[in-house]
Amino acid sequence: MPDDTHRFGDDRLTATVRAEGAELQSLRDAGGGEWLWQAGPEWPRHAPILFPIVGRLPGDTLRHAGQPHRMTQHGFARDSRFTWLWRDGAGCALRLEDNDATRAAYPFAFALDVEWAVAGGALSCTATVLNPGDGPLPFLIGGHPAFSWPLPGAASAEGHHLTFAGIGALAARRLTGGLLDASEYISLRDGTLPLNQSLFEKDAIVLPDFPARKLRYAAPGAALEMQWDGYSDFGLWSKPGASFLCLEPWCGTAAPLGWDGEFMNRPGATVLAPGQSRRFSWQVRPERSPD
């Protein structure tokens, strides 16, 4: 088994994760259908872990104690090599800890554990942030999995939709230069949003303080149920012309346009006291069946 990847699963679902970024690389059903975007030229990633920021900071600069630190979009975890904690036939766990390189961009002690597991035909991802230092730890965190569009078993990209039970409209924010800007409402019919590429012509759809904790991504012939816990916000994104849809549970969003302050006071940041930890999880269950 290559040291940089691990494959695991059950009789219904098989996943592959790599040490670089603790990133999910593949999610296949028993029929061989690939549910995860395969990092094509339109976007060279699959399912990055966003930490210690989600989105952008003004000028790609994190300010702490009056000092600037370079911090690019979505943080450094997605480009960092994690250490394997354990691996078996049902899953794996990996860890990233602060080091000289991370402290240059993010001057805080931290540990980020990411656990992946398959059970009962569902995939789960659990991220735990720990503060081993002697001062407060501010951070944002998010998932960024890109799922196939069209889904395996669907005849085409037409007819795909998202359903959020009990929600009549999406109170969305849009981005300008990667920063949180204009508000808009996106109407739903019976909680359902028909999907088309034009939704993403203005970049991602950001849903701050999103009340839902589950959704259904579906088309005739296939569906994917997603649920999450610990995350307060959500993002939807696709690149027009590409065959993926990102379903992104977040805790925090891009910085608001016009804000440029200390990271400790960053809107939407979670702050852990020394010795504290916080857990975040999401799960998906793919099914090939009539919608």
What would you say this structure looks like, in words?
The longest helix has 6 residues. The protein has a single domain, classed as Beta-galactosidase, Chain A, domain 5. The relative contact order is 0.19. The strands form 6 sheets. It has a 9-stranded antiparallel β-sheet, with no helix packed on it. Strands 4, 12, 13, 18, 21 and 22 form a 6-stranded antiparallel β-sheet that branches. The chain has a 3-stranded antiparallel β-sheet with strand order 1-2-3, with no helix packed on it. The radius of gyration is 19 Å and the shape is globular. The protein contains 1 helix and 24 strands. It is mainly β and 291 residues long.
Average pLDDT, all residues: 96
Any guess at the CATH architecture? Distorted Sandwich
- Beta fraction of the residues? over 45%
Q: Nearest-angstrom radius of gyration?
A: 19 Å
CATH topology grouping? Beta-galactosidase, Chain A, domain 5
Question: For the report, how would you describe the main beta sheet?
Answer: 9 strands, antiparallel
Number of strands: 24
